[in-house]
Amino acid sequence: MVDVNEEGFFEHPEQWTREIASQIAADDGIDELTPQHWQVIDFMRKEYFAKGTGPTVRVLGKTSGVTVKDLYLLFPKGPAKMAARIAGIPKPKGCI
Amino acid sequence: MTMTSPTPTTSPTPTSAKPEAITKISIVISKGSLDGIYPGLIMANGARAEGIGANLFFTFFGMDAILKRRIDHIKVATVGNPGMHIPTLLGGLPGMSALATHMMAKKMEGIDIPPLGEFIEMIGDTGAGMYACRASVDMFGLTKDDFVPQIQGIITVGDFYGLAAGGQIIFT
What is the tens place of the pLDDT at every residue in B128-137? Predict the structure, then answer.
């Protein structure tokens, strides 16, 4: 069992596993997580554990190796929200 | 003096568990100052990041945000802007607006808000629709070539309402 808040974000990111990520993604309409998805997910977790909050879309676009355009194609329900949920981290705090 | 409390427009009903989520917004940007342009852009970009559909409609001086020759020269209004807390005469001194803009740009970069050109490009990449107002374009004698490439078209007010159908409209 994992603890999530009412929006579906993990309360304890350490409870996350790659299997759970695939399951959340499937529930959110992403049938299969591609290597590019994983690149974003892994980057988000790394940033979260280093900085205490997930990266904004702008930071993702500049430093994750995936462009803003591709981020929106990979996570059509919004990269900030969807990718953080799949990555098992709290919703990023930034506005941009 | 008696105070009357305003009637809440959305009173919570015990039966409805959760209000319906916003799925689409269309934002009109009508002012050409930095403080007139950014709020609408931040709201549109933020909407897309949440998976909400977004359109931007630039009209009148708001078009400065998407005009090639203006986009890098947008300034904060230091005159007639009480929010700046600068006396009008002081705000009108040469270079004041440039100075205030420079200071604000530094602050914005610090909280991850991009410079205008980059922001417009990024919003284009989010898949948001961006349009210029037909009446304003005709009034100022402009053509599509005057605009940054992210602008998808020059549209009429009627077209705008068509695009906005099914969502909410915000005027800034």
Answer: 999 999 999 9
For residue B147, pLDDT beyond 60 = yes
In what side-by-side order are the strands of the sheet with B53-58? B153-155, B129-133, B53-58, B24-29, B168-171
B50, B111, B123: best mutation site toward chain A, by most A Cβ within 10 Å? B50
With CB atoms and an 8 Å threshold, state whether A76 touches B48: no
pLDDT score at B14: 56
Tell me how crowded residue B64 is: count the other CB atoms within 10 A of its CB.
Answer: 22
Domain boundaries in chain B? 24-77+115-171
Query: Which token pair is B64?
Result: 């400065």
Determine whether A95 is an active site residue: yes
What confidence score (pLDDT) does residue A3 get?
A: 85
The total of other beta-carbon atoms located within 10 Å of residue A72's CB is 22
**Would you identify the CATH topology of the domain B24-77+115-171?**
Hypothetical Protein Ychn; Chain: A, (3.40.1260)
Count CB neighbours of A21 within 10 A. 21
Q: What percentage of chain B exceeds 70 in pLDDT?
A: 91
Nearest Cα to Cα of residue A83 among A42, A35, A52: A42
Q: Does ipTM exceed 0.90?
A: no
- Sorted by where each starts, the structural domains of chain A and their CATH numbers stand as 13-87 (1.10.10)
A10: β partners: A4
Q: What is the pLDDT of residue B158?
A: 96
Report yes or no: A91 and A74 within 8 Å, Cβ to Cβ: no
pLDDT value, residue B110: 85
Q: Does the beta-carbon distance from A68 to B42 stay under 8 Å? A: no
- Residue B23 has a pLDDT of 95
A35 to each of A22, A25, A38, A53, how far by Cα in Å? Answer: 12, 14, 5, 23
